[in-house]
Design brief:
Layout lengths: L6 E7 L6 H14 L3 E6 L11 E2 L1 H12 L5 E3 L2 H5 L5 H12 L4 E7 H4 L8 H7 E6 L11 H9 L4 E4 L8 H10 L9 H9 L12 E2 L3
Parallel strand pairs: 1-2, 1-5, 2-4, 5-6, 6-7
Antiparallel strand pairs: 3-8
Helix pairs in contact: 2-9, 4-6
Bound molecules: adenosine-5'-triphosphate and magnesium ion.
The site of adenosine-5'-triphosphate has 18 residues, from α1, β5, α5 and α8.
């Protein structure tokens, strides 16, 4: 049990690949909520991407490590990757609660887009009981447009639900994968070591990278 950490941020994602939008969001949350550490949590198979091909977890893990190395507050967890199968947030929060103990407050960090379907997450209410939710602003996803059911759900949990303004980065991993595929530059969209890794491992060069992709069910 790590009792030195009073407030732990969890930045979940597919990180296929990790980019500056993720990093600026995690750092914004760390600073705003006084987090002692932000744990980046590359998913095994994300439940909302079941019909998508996701790059081998070991590549996504490695890129996340490379991107976070220089920030002493950032760390990367293999929890969801090693658990295998579909990665549900509730299982991760329960595991972290167990690991760090009840004295550590958990802050689960997501971008605004992830909030749109939060009410349909597995055991969504239990997630909120275990962790604060931080919804970071993201270009293209206005929280004003939340569906009524989600709005009501957020209102019920407002003490544990926080909206965080972060510098707008209109980047997505989808766009980065497309750029690599078509030979466009990804410089300044991802940290340099991540760009080098993508080039060396020849990631994202084909529409469906069979040899390096784990096929989702
Ligand atoms: P993809 O296009 O493959 O879905 P992504 O860029 O959305 O990739 P994810 O790994 O799906 O990246 O996102 C992980 C988390 O980071 C999510 O909570 C997402 O909302 C958030 N996030 C991603 N990009 C940004 C961004 N540019 N600004 C703020 N939050 C972001
Ligand atoms: Mg996404």
């Amino acid at each position: 049990m790590n009792s030195t950490i009073k407030r732990l941020g969890i930045m979940g994602g597919t990180f296929d690949p990790i980019h500056y939008g993720h990093l600026v969001t995690a750092e914004g949350a760390r600073f705003t909520f006084g987090l002692d550490q932000v744990l980046f949590m590359p998913s095994g198979q994300p439940p909302h991407k079941k019909n998508a091909r996701v790059t081998d977890p070991e590549h996504r893990y490695m890129m996340t490590v490379l991107a976070t190395l220089t920030n002493p507050y950032f760390d990367v967890s293999r929890l969801e990757i090693d658990r295998g199968g579909t990665s549900y947030t509730i299982d991760t929060l329960r595991a972290l609660h167990q690991l760090y103990g009840p004295a550590t407050e958990l802050y689960f960090i997501t971008g605004a887009d992830a909030i749109f379907d939060v009410a349909s997450w597995k055991n969504a209410d239990d997630c909120l009981a275990l962790a604060h939710f931080v919804a970071a602003t993201r270009p293209g996803f206005s929280l004003v447009d939340l569906p009524e059911s989600t709005r009501q759900w957020v209102a019920r949990h407002q003490e544990r639900f926080h909206i965080l303004k972060v510098p707008a980065m209109a980047i997505s991993s989808t766009e980065i994968r497309e750029r690599v595929r078509e030979g466009s530059s990804i410089r300044y969209l991802v940290p340099e070591p991540v760009e080098h890794y993508i080039r060396r491992q020849r990631l994202y060069t084909q529409e469906l990278p069979q040899s390096r992709a784990s096929c989702a069910k």
